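TL;DR need structure tokens for one chain.
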Amino acid sequence: PEYKGPWRAPQIPNPAYVGEWEHPLIENPDYQPNSELYKFESNAGVGIEIWQVKAGSLFDNILVTNDVELASERAEEAILRTEAEREQQQEETARRAAREAEER
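>> reply
TL;DR here they are.
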């Protein structure tokens, strides 16, 4: 047959149809409007969602501040610590490789 446009499911009449459903409104005697519901005295928490692609990933040294100088100082400290840890890891890996070579 010739193309008649996109297919649509056939509609059958429903004699019980009374229109779109509308939820009933139920009185709540305890309800009190509060225009300051969103305000907090202190937001002393931070939520971080991390999606790990590789198991065993570690995240640390998270700093939340608006002080640029403090952030720079802490970043330098973290970089120095990371470099020292990397050197220790490389030394340990070299020791293990030497130990395994001796055992063979």
